What we know:
The complex is a heterodimer. Chain A is of the alpha+beta class. Chain A has helices at residues 11-14, 30-41, 45-58, 68-80; strands at residues 18-23, 60-66, 85-89. In chain A, helix 2 crosses helix 3. The radius of gyration of chain A is 17 Å and the shape is globular. The mean pLDDT of chain A is 88. By secondary structure, chain B is mainly α. Chain B has one domain (2-162). Chain B has helices spanning 18-25, 27-30, 38-43, 53-82, 102-119, 124-128, 138-162; strands spanning 2-6, 10-16, 93-98. A 3-stranded antiparallel beta sheet of chain B has the order 1-2-3. In chain B, strand 1 (2-6) and strand 2 form a beta hairpin. Chain B starts with a strand and ends in an 11-residue tail after the last helix. The interface between A and B is medium-sized, with 19 and 32 residues.
Amino acid sequence: MPETAIETKTEAQLATPWNVVVHNDPVNLMSYVTMVFQKVFGYSRDRATRHMLEVHHLGRSIVWTGSREQAELYVQQLHSYLLQATLEKSEGC
Amino acid sequence: MLIRKWKKKAIEFSRIEQIEAELLRQVPACCDLDEGSKAEARIFPPPANTNDPDFLRDWHEYVRPELQHLFRSAKETVETDLGSLKMKVGHLGRFLVPLEHGEPWLNALNQARLILATKFEFSEAELSAFDLSRTFSQRELVLHQINFYAAIQERIIEILNTGDEQKGSGEGG
Lengths: 93, 173
């Protein structure tokens, strides 16, 4: 029988990474946004503050990257705190 | 008004003036949304900048009702807590908010601020201005209301984050 080479990829390799993006909003308080990042992602205060400042100064921050399913859950959680968040395909994939 | 942690189990609002009580009582009503309004679009923003109709339809069908329930529940919690705020003529008011209601309060105050800011179309510069206005139009007064709610949010966040029982910021009004 002829041999057939089958190339396999893991699920992780096949999955396209998705970004969770938080957009600037003049109403949400900086302290509130920092608190939400800590609660939703379990980030340290420093990391949460870094993302908050990125949102504030650059208008947006990619706060998490990973599977689409998890990204959707995070966007839902961020919306529950009234933050403007979207998911988008990660570039370079 | 003074806002501080009370016996490790509540947030105490005390020394409340009549005008502050009135603004607090307006929080639930400020959370009401007009269907199809800009404020509604801000409270329920799209989850992605995409034209994927299936995803957006599913989000609208399954996620939005959950968010609506959460926002309504936060508003009702605030309404219930405010029920214990009794003002007597010539006296300052006081009421307690259980610590576990801290997040619903933050949520309802955020809803109120977002809705007011969207309805009155405040710019980022206006929202972050610290100078006192010289006019007393309805718009200016709403800006004061938004800032009053922001100060309460800041204090609740401080209490939830640090557990501080001594500091008395939030005084004013």
